[in-house]
């Protein structure tokens, strides 16, 4: 499926489609971004905070703000520990 996009002078609207488990590492957007989560979700880190973006979330991020999604953390965690965060949680969860 090809994401839909529309542009009007000074503003653009683009549909973003990201596969489950995909990674959007640390990055910036040149302009402010508005994100509405329609389905699925992700956790995003910016400004020293973690925002849990679930269906119905409307998120506004300032221009040039450094941000990363939860997949970035998962990849870093896996590199440092050798297992995924979910595998770690399962390993310490009481049965």
Word description of this protein:
By secondary structure, the chain is α+β, with helices and mostly antiparallel strands. 21% of the residues lie in helices and 31% in strands. The chain has 2 helices and 7 strands, in the order E-E-E-E-E-E-E-H-H. The strands form 3 sheets. The chain has a 3-stranded antiparallel sheet. Strands 1-2 form a two-stranded antiparallel sheet. Strands 3-6 form a two-stranded antiparallel sheet. The longest helix has 12 residues, at 70-81. It is elongated, with a radius of gyration of 16 Å. The chain starts with a strand and ends with a helix. The mean pLDDT is 76.
Briefly characterize the structure.
The protein is an alpha+beta fold and 95 residues long.
Topology:
Elements: E1 5-8, E2 11-14, E3 33-36, E4 42-46, E5 49-53, E6 58-61, E7 67-69, H1 70-81, H2 85-92
Antiparallel strand pairs: 1-2, 3-6, 4-5, 4-7
Tell me about the largest β-sheet: 3 strands, antiparallel
Secondary-structure element pattern, one letter each: EEEEEEEHH
Question: Strands across the major sheet, in which order?
Answer: 5-4-7
Structural class: alpha+beta
Mean pLDDT, all residues: 76
Uncertain runs with pLDDT below 50, 5 residues or more? none
Instruction: Give the helix tally.
Output: 2
Distance between the termini: 42 Å
Q: What best-fitting shape do the alpha-carbon axes yield?
A: elongated
Secondary structure tally: strands: 7
Helix content: 10-25%
Radius of gyration: 16 Å
Strand percentage lies at 25-35%
